[in-house]
């Protein structure tokens, strides 16, 4: 059977399982199973699919029909045009989180300066590693409560050759810092902000992701509050904290910092806040 026929069968199965982007998912999974890119897929559409590839592809489709995210099946996800390793130990990087990078680049356009940045709750490391790549003289401290996620994050720092400038520490929010931690030029965080009520209505795919990376099991705002309240203890005077949020919105701004602005995603939803100390 040709690659095209295998694809058509797979798309029908994914549609029956209510996968929204059935064609795109099937193509991504076939390219990964076959080890080819999109151009090669078009060229080889009428070739017979080798039986070993067909076998791997059909296993991928079974997993995707159970609504396992494509990123976990292929083990990677693109963020800010770079590929990051992912596993079910880490949240899959989202396009909306790229806004944090965009805002930091606006606040600090001199990408050659030797800044000191922090990424709290780094997960796959996508924020910390991206800023280390974009600011080649910066040092970044990345923290996460999950030791397992730090293994993935470290692998991504190696992949993007920034291990020497990204330091990883295990700990809950600011508790990962010690007495020697210097004040930062900016702190960035995409913390768990899905409220416990919202968790019930999530797409099936999100149940494959680590729930401690999605929800604070409260109103969504509890970790954002701690991040903002304690930021002045860890920021240089005049430095910034940038946080992502979702439906829960942003907590009341603590007196010690000033909210500069909030930002919205391409769909017009509130997505984050930028504050200055
Ligand atoms: N953006 C994620 C979502 O799909 C939530 C990630 C987070 O809680 N930080 O809802």
Provide structural commentary:
The chain is 37% helix and 19% strand. The protein has 277 residues and is α/β, with parallel strands linked by helices. It folds into 2 domains: 3-66; 81-276, Vaccinia Virus protein VP39 (Rossmann fold, 3-Layer(aba) Sandwich), CATH 3.40.50.150. A 7-stranded mixed beta sheet has the order 5-4-3-6-7-9-8, sandwiched between helices. A two-stranded antiparallel ribbon has the order 1-2. Helix 2 packs antiparallel against helix 4. The longest helix has 15 residues, at 51-65. The model has no long low-confidence stretch (mean pLDDT 97). The structure holds glutamine (GLN).
Mean pLDDT: 97
Structural class: alpha/beta
The low-pLDDT segments are none
Total number of beta strands: 9
Cα-based radius of gyration, to the nearest Å: 20 Å
Range of helix content: 25-40%
Strand order of the largest sheet: 5-4-3-6-7-9-8
Beta-strand residue fraction: 15-25%
How far is the first residue's CA from the last residue's CA? 63 Å
In short:
This protein is of the alpha/beta class and 277 residues long. The protein has 2 domains: 64 residues; 196 residues, Vaccinia Virus protein VP39 (Rossmann fold), CATH 3.40.50. Helices cover 37% and strands 19% of the residues.
Top keywords for this entry?
9 strands, alpha/beta, binds glutamine, 277 residues, two-stranded antiparallel sheet
Write the layout of secondary structure elements.
Layout: H1 3-16, H2 22-34, H3 38-43, H4 51-65, H5 70-74, E1 76-79, E2 82-85, H6 98-107, E3 116-120, H7 126-134, E4 139-144, H8 147-159, E5 166-170, E6 184-189, H9 196-199, H10 211-214, H11 222-230, E7 235-244, E8 258-264, E9 270-276
Parallel strand pairs: 3-4, 3-6, 4-5, 6-7
Antiparallel strand pairs: 1-2, 7-9, 8-9
Helix pairs in contact: 1-2, 1-4, 2-4
Bound molecules: glutamine.
